[in-house]
Amino acid sequence: MQDLKEHTGYSEDWLKEHILLHPRYKPMLDIENGGFVYYPERKGERWCFIASKMEEFLQKHFRDIFTKKGDPHANQTRLVR
């Protein structure tokens, strides 16, 4: 999670609300559905991501995630290296 926060420039809460737990994206991301994100089952467990797949996902869904939210703080240069 820390790497994702650093890579995007967004807080853990923002990432969870707008991407990781968002009903549109969670089914695509969840390892239980063939995705590349391990969702912790208990408090204290760590989130796990396949970094290259997350970067591809952010590039593919960048417009939908950020522009529809009207977020003027989206940091495209950090998201798409």
Describe the structure.
The structure is a single chain. With 81 residues, the protein is mainly alpha-helical. It has one domain (2-79). It has five helices and two strands; from the N terminus they run αααββαα. The chain has helices at 2-8, 12-20, 26-29, 51-67, 76-79; strands at residues 37-38, 48-49. The protein has a two-stranded antiparallel sheet. The chain starts with a helix and ends with a helix.
List key phrases describing it:
2 strands, 81 residues, DUF771, mainly alpha, two-stranded antiparallel sheet, 51% helix, DUF771 domain-containing protein
For the biggest β-sheet, the strand order reads 1-2
How much of the sequence lies in strands comes to under 5%
* Rg estimate, integer Å: 12 Å
* Secondary structure category: mainly alpha
What is the H/E string?
HHHEEHH
Spans of at least 5 consecutive residues whose pLDDT stays below 50 are none
Total number of beta strands: 2
The first-to-last residue Cα distance is 18 Å
What gross morphology would you assign? globular
Individual helix count: 5
The major β-sheet equals:
2 strands, antiparallel
Oligomer: single chain
- Total domain units: 1
Name the helicity range.
40-55%
What is the mean predicted local confidence, pLDDT? 87
Question: How would the blueprint of this fold be written?
Answer:
Blueprint: H1 2-8, H2 12-20, H3 26-29, E1 37-38, E2 48-49, H4 51-67, H5 76-79
Antiparallel strand pairs: 1-2
Pfam family, one: DUF771
Protein name: DUF771 domain-containing protein
InterPro entries: DUF771 (IPR008489)
